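Key result, reporting period 2: structure in, sequence out.
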């Protein structure tokens, strides 16, 4: 039987305690299709430059996010990563930081922190004063932000060489200014198997489902709202709970040695969601599967070029064709990346095209991601 260390038992007990601390029941419980979606954007410019193909490859501090089992495979004793990206022309800020270290020759721990937010949103409900005039001094600013803390533990399985397992305790805080707050907890689990140049991985996010309790400040929400809303034409939100259903990522990768100190790493991931039918290449009423592929070309393990593709969706054209019908096409999210690794320092850049279509246009929004990583003894 696999013996758990004191750190593993502590992570398990912490998770159980947090789960019991959540309300036993809420006024309403729902399972929205994109619950806590901020946790699925991805972290690290290397991973995002490869199309988020990491379930079988993650082997540094970012493994706490992609697959905690990979923490025991990091090549440096201590590893840290910082990332910043801006989405939708800088409106949305995405920040991430992580640190990992071994406990002994068979186990490792990690901690990851994430924030996705929109700041300085103007609350103009009181812009018109009681005399019917505009009063700019009445404008208040607020932020909408999502936070997550991941505490990770990984351990090598002694009886199977190359096999490791890991888990996350995931704590969530979501804030919509003074209007609403949400607290949540969940557990992720993963495994990796490395053998003769092959890398295999399985990541189960929200494996126990993730519970997020929302508390609405009804008094603040109704402040300044006109009479038509107050009379019931627009429902005022109430306290509720969200359940995030599990998703599974199965990954495989292979590293090839090329002539003249070049190398190539090719990997694929199959991400399966369990919250119903989505706009993915493989979709049923119960499950949807999103395939992704990524490649990394390296020279002397010093300079890297990367590319990836995934998030394919069927997009309907808004202009009718000659027959008077509307065509649809499959379009994906493509990414490019580059990186340099020198004496433990890793500098990675990624350029990702968000699969967001403008009305009547085929253009997409670009997102630049920058991350720094450092591993040291």
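The corresponding designed sequence is given below.
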């Amino acid at each position: 039987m696999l013996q758990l260390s004191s750190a593993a038992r502590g992570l398990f007990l912490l998770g159980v305690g947090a789960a019991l601390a959540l309300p036993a029941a809420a006024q309403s419980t729902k399972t929205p299709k994109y619950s806590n979606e901020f946790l699925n954007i991805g972290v690290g410019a290397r991973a995002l430059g490869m199309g988020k193909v990491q379930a079988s490859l993650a082997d540094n501090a970012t493994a706490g996010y992609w697959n905690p089992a990979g923490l025991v495979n990091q090549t440096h004793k201590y590893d840290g990563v910082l990332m910043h990206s801006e989405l939708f022309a800088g409106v949305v800020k995405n920040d991430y930081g992580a640190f990992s270290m071994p406990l002994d020759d068979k186990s490792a721990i990690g901690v990851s922190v994430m924030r996705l937010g929109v700041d300085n949103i103007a609350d103009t409900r009181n812009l018109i004063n009681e005399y019917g005039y505009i009063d700019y001094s009445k404008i208040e600013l607020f932020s909408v932000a999502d936070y997550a803390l991941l505490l990770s533990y990984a351990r090598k399985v002694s009886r199977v060489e190359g096999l490791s397992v890991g888990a996350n305790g995931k704590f969530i805080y979501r804030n919509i200014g003074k209007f609403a707050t949400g607290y949540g907890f969940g557990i992720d689990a993963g495994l990796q198997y490395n053998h003769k140049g092959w890398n295999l991985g399985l990541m189960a996010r929200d494996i126990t489902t993730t519970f997020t309790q929302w508390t609405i400040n009804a008094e603040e929400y109704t402040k300044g709202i006109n009479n038509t809303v107050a009379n019931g034409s627009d429902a005022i939100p109430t306290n509720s709970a969200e359940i995030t259903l599990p998703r599974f990522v199965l990954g495989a990768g292979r590293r090839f040695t090329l002539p003249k100190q070049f190398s190539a790493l090719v990997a694929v991931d199959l991400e399966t969601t369990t919250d119903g039918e989505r706009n993915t290449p493989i979709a049923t009423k119960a499950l949807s599967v999103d395939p992704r592929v990524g490649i990394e070309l390296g020279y002397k393990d010093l300079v890297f070029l990367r590319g990836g593709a995934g998030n394919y969706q069927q997009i309907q054209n808004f202009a009718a064709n000659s027959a008077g019908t509307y065509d649809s096409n499959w379009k994906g999210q493509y990414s490019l990346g580059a990186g340099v690794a020198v004496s433990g320092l890793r500098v990675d850049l990624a350029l990702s095209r968000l699969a967001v279509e403008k009305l009547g246009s085929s253009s997409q929004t670009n997102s630049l991601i920058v991350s720094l990583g450092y591993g040291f003894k």
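The longest strand covers residues 107-123. The chain has five helices and 18 strands. This case is discussed further under Risks and Mitigation.
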